[in-house]
Design goal:
Blueprint (H helix, E strand, L loop, with lengths): L1 H4 L4 E3 L5 E3 L13 E9 L7 E9 L2 E8 L8 H15 L9 E5 L4 E4 L22 H12 L2 H11 L1 E3 L7 E3 L3 H15 L4 E6 L5 H14 L7 E6 L2 H15 L4 E2 L4 H9 L4 E6 L16 E5 L13 H8 L4 E6 L10 H5 L10 E3 L1 H6 L6 E5 L8 H14 L4 H11 L2 H5 L2 H17 L7 E5 L3 H15 L2 H10 L6 E5 L19 H12 L5 E6 L12 E6 L5 H8 L17 E5 L4 H7 L15 E3 H18 L13 H13 L1 H21 L9 H17 L2 H11 L4 H6 L48 H14 L11 H10 L7 H20 L16 H9 L6 H19 L5 H18 L9 H12 L3
Parallel strand pairs: 5-6, 10-15, 10-16, 11-13, 11-14, 12-13, 14-15, 17-22, 17-23, 18-20, 18-21, 19-20, 21-22
Antiparallel strand pairs: 1-2, 3-4, 4-5, 6-7, 8-9
Helix pairs in contact: 5-6, 6-7, 12-27, 15-16, 19-20, 21-23, 22-24, 23-24, 29-30, 29-33, 30-31, 31-32, 31-33, 32-33
Length: 940
């Protein structure tokens, strides 16, 4: 029917000549007959008559159906949408065969969607040029002007309705979000005008992959583009599979190419193949210059902030050399602006506001309910250490093996790493126990699934094994029995494992074929499948769209765009098969990344402070909101006789019900506030601050349940839609409050240099002697090792010896994060570094440009010391400043395709400078030095 409506069906006349069957004129809108009729009644013998509020006809075809509710009635727009889905489209499916979209409104909100689609996929239709705070009747009127305009209806029919036929069973119908339509048209128009590039900045989770498909379809269908070649470019193979799957399912296989290797890609481009090519940027390595000089090659770059730089030796540089006249359009949710990578400069036209062709902000996405907010739930893990005993044990070990100072320091450095902390068996057990407890207490009961991000591949495997072990335990089986959905749930690992001969043999069993990985993701996305956890370390942290992922457990240090994209995994909207509406995503943070998260979500173009437009919410904010709502109910019931709000008993329930029955207005207030409590509770019920409210919450739940049973059918529908499938009796009877237990008040600081020996240190600590005089094969526990470490710090160390950088001192530096007894000169250097960093950061705003390196290659820090040094500052500090600026210059000059490698290289160079000056590469002024260098080149 879609092909028929679009004029892509032909018929043969009596003379045998083929003609296109034209049902709709897309070129001349006024050539069509357009009618809107109200109160359209369908009468079919033997079936119940149904009446549509409004039908939008074009040439006699019912292309749009509108169901309207009164703003003063108890029914909302969602009730109207459910009537279309469950009644009209179910009883009269043939009437909806030509349907483009359906509209539901109550006069306060308007949503459109595909008939039969879940209500969370029904969307508003607005304009990014309008005030994003427009609401109520004014918002509905504006939506009608935009959406019901004949040009919009026919544009959507001609260019933006897609069907995914790849999943088997019922085909999935895709309708565009308004920002996707706007951006796709802007890309199309810029290509027609001869423009060469454009940056599309849309919030993570708002559908950039579909946007690329829509844009490609517009460009391919327009004869003015002269049969273009459109390259859908990703930086990861699984993103190519995702884009390819969406495109081929929706548009067909004609003129679609997915080259398996670099040679095939070069052949396609050299042979001037037209249509769509889906590939990765890595296949452009060694592509050479002028592989194709055509101007109608259009490159649509997914996740444009990654691997895209102006460096001619980078993969992106080689691609641009191979396609010198191509047009480049970048799609990203996290554009970058620093001295190494500037997404705005690379893809943005100077004439575009802020160098952005189209912007769909975090705040607008949240207001549109295209995504949900993310709650950051911090649970940093800390532990005790006995440094002195461990240092003594380590020194004894080194003496026994006659290790010289360089060897001692090498061992200290090798095992004084972050990996050692994470790999400790006690820590693994503690974190995984908290993950399982937290998940079963909340997300699992609502049908949501979870992702776990581990530090490395080995730990991803270890976490998977431990989680499965705990899920098989008695406590987990009790929860599964209460919920009654699964007898057993499981976790699986998804990591990158190569086919190379050097690949770790222990990782080989976890290698997944493309088919196996797709099947694993399908099971994770299925609500009924027992696969509830995916444990990853790098894969599936970007580009994996899992709306039913409710919680992400983050146990890996991340920063900048990698952190932003990771914490957006649970921000997709979702409605469970039983009706639970996901209103928040949850990130449980075991690292203590609150400050990094705030930096990651800051808008690099914002003139003032930004915290991500409300995208990330601290758990404390939800707890405070819960407390306020609880207090309002307490005040409301203050005059009810014979009620003890701390006791969940029959007498209290009955007394409150008598009061609410006699007072309708307080009953409405109570119902509204209790529904708010019930929505917040799944996200905060593991917080100890909420534990004292458990009995009161249970009491209110029983009262509400009684009111709910007395409600009319319409009221029941409304309340059920808000509460979802939450079984109040279960929640009230099983209030859990779990947290990762910290064995001391001081929180472990996860410094960039790593922390200390744990698991690998077991190999360094001498075996203990058992009671028979032999060696005890049982390794010391983590607690014993940490007890050893602690005392070593009390003894102090000789600054001139290798022990200065040995294990105990490194731990002390990491904990203290500053140099003891710093000299005045170093204090001044630290302050100078902070000032220099502020100057460099200011350079990132074009309106406040600052020259970072002048023609003589004198850096900001060197200039500050040259112009403002106090009396008595020695040549040592001046030389140190110059060497720091040399690190900046050399790092900026070197081509880095891999951000992690660049970061490591710069830090190693900085640490080497500090060691040459007999300074410790931790604390101050090292931290300020790293921050200053980061301001120059690292992703922010």
């Amino acid at each position: 029917m879609l092909r028929l409506l679009r004029g892509r069906k032909e018929f043969r006349d009596n003379d045998g000549v083929w003609h296109t069957l034209k049902l709709v004129d897309f070129e001349t809108l006024t050539a069509n007959t357009m009618v809107v009729s109200d109160e359209v009644t369908i009468n079919v013998p033997g079936k119940t008559s149904r009446r549509f509020d409004l039908v939008y006809w074009i040439n006699g075809l019912p292309l749009v159906v509108v169901e309207v509710k009164s703003p003063t009635s108890k029914s909302a727009w969602a009730d109207a949408a459910r009537e279309i889905n469950n009644v009209y489209a179910t009883e009269y499916p043939w009437f909806f065969t030509p349907n483009v979209f359906a509209v539901a409104t109550d006069g306060l909100k308007l949503r459109f969607g595909a008939a039969g689609a879940p209500t969370n996929l029904w969307q508003p239709f607005r304009s990014t040029d309008d005030d994003e705070n427009l609401s109520g009747l004014a918002d509905v009127q504006r939506s009608v002007e935009l959406l019901m305009n004949p040009a919009t209806v026919l544009d959507m029919l001609a260019n933006f309705v897609l069907f995914d036929t790849a999943g088997g069973g019922t085909d999935k119908k895709y309708l565009p979000r308004y920002p996707q339509m706007e951006a796709a048209h802007l890309i199309h128009e810029r290509v027609l005008r001869g423009g060469s590039k454009g940056l599309v900045w849309h919030h993570q989770g708002s559908g950039k992959t579909l946007l690329m498909v829509f844009a490609a379809a517009l460009l391919l269908a327009d004869t003015r583009t002269e049969s273009p070649t459109i390259i859908l470019l990703s930086d990861r193979t699984h993103l190519v599979r995702q884009t390819s799957g969406v495109f081929t399912s929706a548009m067909g296989d004609a003129y679609f190419h997915k080259p398996p290797n670099s040679q095939k890609l070069r052949t396609l481009l050299a042979d001037d193949v037209r249509g769509v090519i889906s590939t990765t940027v890595h296949k452009f390595a060694e592509a050479g210059k002028n592989l194709s000089v055509r101007k109608n090659i259009i490159v649509l770059v997914d996740e444009a902030h990654r691997t895209q730089s102006s460096d001619k030796d980078s993969l992106a540089g080689q691609m641009r050399a191979a396609l010198p006249n191509a047009r480049f359009f970048g799609m990203t949710g996290t554009p970058i602006r620093n001295l190494a990578t500037d997404t705005f400069d690379l893809f943005g036209e100077e004439g575009d506001p802020g160098r952005v062709l189209h912007r769909y902000s975090v705040s607008r996405s949240l207001l549109d309910e295209a995504t949900v907010p993310v709650v950051l739930h911090p649970h940093p893990v800390s532990f005790d250490m006995d440094d002195q005993a461990l240092q003594a044990e380590f020194d004894e070990f080194a003496d026994d093996f006659d290790l010289d100072d360089p060897d001692r320091e090498a061992l200290s450095r090798k095992f004084g790493r972050l990996t050692s902390v994470f790999a400790n068996p006690d820590r693994i057990h503690t974190v995984c126990q908290h993950i399982v407890d937290h998940y079963l207490a909340g997300a699992y009961r609502n049908g949501l699934k979870a992702q776990v991000v581990a530090y490395n591949r080995e730990l991803a495997v270890a976490y998977t094994d431990k989680i499965n072990e705990l899920l098989a335990g008695f406590e987990a089986s009790q929860v599964l029995g209460e919920v009654g959905k699964h007898q057993r749930i499981t976790a699986e690992v998804n990591i990158s494992v190569s086919d190379s001969k050097t690949e770790d043999v222990d990782m080989k069993p976890y290698q997944l074929s493309e088919t196996e990985e797709e099947e694993q993701k399908r099971r994770f996305l299925s609500p009924d499948d027992p696969l509830c956890f995916l444990v990853v370390t790098a894969k599936l942290m970007t580009g994996f769209d899992a709306p039913n992922e409710g919680v992400l457990y983050l146990d890996k240090p991340l920063k900048a765009h990698n952190l932003f994209q990771t914490i957006t995994r649970p921000n997709r909207t979702w409605v469970s098969p039983t009706g639970f509406v996901k209103t928040y995503g949850v990130v449980v943070d075991y690292i203590g990344l609150a400050e990094e998260v705030q930096r990651a979500v800051v808008d690099p173009t914002a003139a003032g402070p930004s915290k991500g437009g409300g995208f990330v919410t601290d758990l404390s904010e939800l707890v405070a909101e819960f407390r306020l709502a609880f207090a309002r109910i307490e005040d409301l019931l203050a005059d009810v006789d014979g009620v003890d709000l701390t006791v969940h008993g029959y007498q209290s329930v009955r007394a409150i019900n008598v009061f609410l029955d006699a007072n309708p207005d307080p009953a409405k207030v109570f119902s509204k506030d209790y529904r708010l409590l019930a929505r917040l509770y799944p996200f905060i019920n593991t917080d100890k601050r909420v534990a004292k409210y458990s009995d009161g919450f249970g009491l209110f739940g029983s009262v509400y349940t009684t009111l709910f049973k007395k409600s009319s059918d319409e009221e029941r529908k409304e309340r059920l839609a808000e509460l979802g499938p939450m079984v109040l009796e279960i929640i009230n009877a099983h209030v859990h409050s779990f947290s990762v237990v910290a064995s001391q008040e001081e929180t472990l600081v996860l410094d960039a240099q790593g922390i200390t020996v744990l698991k690998e240190l077991l190999a360094l600590v001498r075996p203990k002697t058992d009671k028979n005089g032999g060696e005890d094969a049982t390794p010391p526990s983590a607690a014993e090792i940490l007890d050893h470490i602690k005392a070593a710090l009390d003894k102090g160390v000789e600054p001139e010896s290798a022990r200065y950088t040995a294990l105990a001192e490194r731990i002390k530096q990491l904990r203290d994060r500053f140099i003891q007894n710093a000299q005045d000169a170093l204090d001044f250097l630290s302050e100078a570094l902070r000032v220099a960093r502020a100057i460099v950061n200011a350079e990132k705003h074009p309106a406040e440009a600052v020259v970072v390196l002048d023609d003589d290659h004198i850096g900001v820090l060197t200039r500050i010391l040259h112009d403002h040094a106090p009396a008595g500052l020695t040549i040592t500090e001046r030389n140190l400043a110059e060497e720091i600026d040399q690190v900046v210059r050399h790092t900026l000059a070197k081509a880095w395709d891999n951000a992690d490698a660049r970061n490591r290289g710069a830090r190693r160079a900085t640490a080497a400078v500090f060691r040459r000056y007999a300074l410790k590469p931790v604390g101050e002024p090292y931290d300020s030095t790293v921050a200053y260098i980061e301001a120059h080149y690292l992703v922010d």
